[in-house]
Amino acid sequence: MTTTTPLPPKTERPPAVRRRFAAARPAAGFALAALVLFAGAPLALSDFRLGLLAKYLCTAMVAVGICLAWGRGGLLTLGQGVFFGLGGYAMAMHLKIADAGPGNLPDFMQLYGSATELPWWWRPFANPVFAVAATVLLPMAVAAILGSFIFRRRVKGAYFAILSQALAAAFAIWLVGQQATTGGTNGLTDIQGFFGYDLDDPVNQRMVYFVIASVLLLLIALARQLLHSRYGELLVAVRDSEERVRFLGYDPANVKLVAYVVAAGVAGLAGALFVPAVGIISPALVGIVPSIELVIGAAVGGRASLTGAVLGAIGVAWAKTALSEEFPAGWTYFQGLLFIVALAFLPGGLASLAAVVKRRRAGRRLAGDTV
To answer: Cα–Cα distance between 275 and 278 in angstroms, integer?
Structure first.
């Protein structure tokens, strides 16, 4: 029998010091993220690459909502592309009306349709206040209606995921079929202005980037407060034991509905900011495949961790751009493999890697002490 020399006991900080470190860690991380986004990225990246980063940050916003709904609430939302698209089309409709000028139709309506005036459901989006409010409230309203039917009937698990995916498919098909009013397969393209600012100007493009970065940091801060509130604890309880929560007098349907609606609103806001960053919104960006890509980013980074979900979404979006340029036919297979590996071997995503390594080291140390 072999013996091992016992390790010296680790000196632990007093509880008060540990609490101060724990309280300061989020603030330090937030400050570091702000420094990278507002100082590091603009100095290190060209205008083209900074525009791509703005696009990636929009997908990270959606990941914040996925972290809330799926990571903490257990709702595998495979239809976030619908809410992303609703927000994007609401913003694009206003910008296209503004680009056309008073009394004129957007260019695609003149090309594909025979209408002489705006369709009735386009007219409210000429008002900028209405359009901006609709980018968030419209996705939330749709989510509230759908969620009420789904959660009241206790639909969950794989059935909920399939329904949300079917919704994304139906939405994309509807957009394609309404060519005269939605642009069809092409979508709403060639968006030139953003509330009076010319998007062809690099200075204005940087302004859009700073707006997107600011909104992302604000969403992260608000989501963190929500997740650490009493509601956040109740949401986790519903995920882990729905029947016990119902026995305690809470309605799990309402708890899940709030998470679903908030995630939809966040996705709609992300879609609205995606439009001036990229200059286009189309059915190809809101269907089944884009919705799954958004979930993959959150899963790889760590769906239960805000930081992990955000960084995972940015990383997967960057990998899609970089690898699809080199391997256009193989990227989809790599993406699917990445999702399978993440769920099978690291369910908590990369954010849980440090905890997994720490547990294994502790297990080996305990096994060595008992030899």
So the answer is: 5
The single residue listed with the structure tokens 């008002």 is 127
**Strand boundaries in the chain, DSSP class E:** 193-194, 197-198
Q: Which residues, 6 or more positions from 236, have their beta carbon under 8 angstroms from its beta carbon?
A: 72, 73
Q: How far is CA 292 from the centre of its chain?
A: 11
Measuring CA to CA, which residue among 303, 254, 231, 229 is closest to residue 80?
A: 303
Long-range contacts of 320-325 (CB under 8 A, 24+ apart): 320/293, 321/52
* Structure tokens belonging to residue 309: 């979900």
d(CA 328, CA 320): 9
Q: Per-residue pLDDT tens for 289-300?
A: 889 888 988 988
Beta bridge partners of 198: 193
**286: helix, coil or strand?**
coil
Sign of CA dihedral 155, 157, 159, 165: positive
pTM over 0.70? The answer is yes
pLDDT digits (tens, 9 = 90+) for 9-61: 555 556 655 566 556 677 888 889 999 999 999 999 999 999 999 999 999 99
- In one letter, which amino acid is 301? G
Strands (E), 98-235: 193-194, 197-198
Can you say how many angstroms the Cα of residue 33 is from the centroid of all Cα atoms in its chain? Answer: 17
User: Which residue shows structure tokens 């879609």?
Assistant: 271
Q: Are 124 and 114 in contact (CB under 8 A)?
A: no
Residue burial 301-331, b: 16+ Cβ < 10 Å; e: rest: bbbbbbbbbbbbbbbbbbbbeeeeeeeeeeb
Half-sphere exposure of 255 (CA within 13 A, CB side): 27
Instruction: Determine how β-strand 193-194 pairs with β-strand 197-198.
Output: antiparallel
| Selection from 275, 222, 220, 287 nearest residue 54 by Cα | 275
Query: What is d(CA 33, CA 55) in angstroms, rounded to the nearest whole number?
Result: 17
